[in-house]
Amino acid sequence: MMPAPKPAVITFRDVVVEKNGTPILAGLTLRLSERRIGVIGRNGSGKSTFARLFNGIETPSSGEVGIDGKTGRKDLRRHVGFVFQNPDNQIVYPIVSEDLAFGLKNLKLTQQETAARIDTVLTRFGLAHLRDRFTHQLSGGEKQMIALAGVLVMQPRVIVFDEPTTLLDLCNKRRFMAALQELEQQIVVVSHDLDLLQGFDRVLHFENGTLCEDGPPAPVIAAYVARSQC
Amino acid sequence: MLTDLYVSGDSPVHRARPVRKIVALIVVCTGLFIFEGWPSVLTAGILVGAGFAMAGLRPRHALASLRPALWILVAIFAVQAMLTDALFAGFVTARFVVLILAAALVTLTTRTSEFVEGILAALTHAPHWIPKHQIALAISLCLRFIPLVRTVLEEVRQAQQARGTHASLTALLVPLVVRTLKTGDEVAQAIYARSPE
């Protein structure tokens, strides 16, 4: 495992997100510098919108999001990677190696540099045999790992995962969790799967577009479970 | 299926620049229609066969390329045989077979990204208002999402059958279009998220 770099400081200052006049997130002010951050909440609580703010996919109606003091969308996109819930919607090219090269084209790397980055990531996660495979022929677990690899080749400082294990079976979920543990990047994981967040440094609990609990996993998850009695 | 065609390899045919392969394909196809007759079909057939051999492709690859067009070839032969004679029908059909195999040789040995780069190269001198990169990305997305839309269609069809609905075009198309549009939205977000510039 590579030595872990210093985590970035991500700041949310008075962030409000509204869609068609309906508030999705209300007045969020937050400073995140932990290495492993979990985000939980009911459906429609605003946690996915919150996750999309990190990478600039979603823009605040007011307020600002920054990474290490820089608030430009380009800075967010350059330093924050995003892994979607459904890898089918994230994989753009028909062949694995072509898909991994997609984001790298923007970095103007040479062919050798591009190939080296792809090989390094594929080898690290035991995916080298998938290099020339058609993406639509991969299993769900393989697709999710390739989606992650597509983000890792960009060497982001922070990776945001939006419910990454929802579509995975138990075996693939465990494999994916092991891969998460190995990452030296700072990670933010939005999940309904509370097992995934064990051992995290900080967990945020959203309810109706506001941050209602924030702290170590055990008390925040306990409060969430208590509120969610059906 | 289109996206299943590429066969990886390191032959001279695989390594040849995509633009050259596309130009060669155009020359062979045009030649087949300018120089009518069995000699041109045989010559083109030998050239395409040599290309298959040089690329290390097997007869099953050629057969797989022809299979989707089989019924059309049979129809062409039958109509020509009725209107003219069996020999001319055989010539017309053989010409189509060679055309399909020539096109297959290009797609079997060229990656999607190489096609895209070839298109970008061809558009190098196009006016600045033509969105070259967007055109190239759109082509690659079409190839990528053919199997995805097919999977969605199959899921919707099975769901309709499970609910006892049969042969309803509206019941099939509405969820297919809705899911495809939703997927399109998320794909657009993913492309944005994966493009740092």
Molecular structure report:
The complex is a heterodimer of chains A (230) and B (197). Chain A is an alpha/beta fold. Helix content of chain A is 33%, strand content 26%. Chain A has one domain (10-227): P-loop containing nucleotide triphosphate hydrolases (Rossmann fold, 3-Layer(aba) Sandwich), CATH 3.40.50.300. Chain A has helices at residues 47-54, 73-79, 96-104, 111-124, 140-152, 170-182, 217-227, and strands at residues 10-19, 22-32, 36-41, 62-67, 80-83, 158-162, 186-190, 202-207, 210-215. With 197 residues, chain B is mainly α. Chain B folds into two domains: 2-110, no CATH class; 132-194, no CATH class. Helix content of chain B is 77%, strand content 0%. Chain B is globular, with a radius of gyration of 21 Å. The mean pLDDT of chain B is 85. Chain A binds chain B through residues 52, 55-57, 74, 77-78, 81-82, 84, 86, 88-95, 98, 101-103, 106-107, 132, 134-136, 150-151, 154, and chain B through 3-4, 6, 8, 111-113, 137, 140-141, 143-144, 147-148, 151, 183, 186-187, 189-197.
Helix content of chain A: 25-40%
Count up the helices of chain A: 7
Summarize model confidence as the mean pLDDT of chain A. Answer: 89
Rg of chain B, rounded, reads 21 Å
Biggest interface and residues each: A-B, 32 and 27 residues
Based on secondary structure, the structural category of chain A is: alpha/beta
Q: Tally the helices of chain B: what do you get?
A: 9
Largest sheet of chain A: 6 strands, mixed
What's the story with the biggest beta sheet of chain B? none
The coarse overall form of chain A would be globular
Number of E strands of chain B: 0
How much is the average pLDDT of chain B? 85
Question: What is the total number of structural domains of chain B?
Answer: 2
User: What's the CATH C level of chain A?
Assistant: Alpha Beta
Strand order of the largest sheet of chain A: 5-6-7-3-8-9
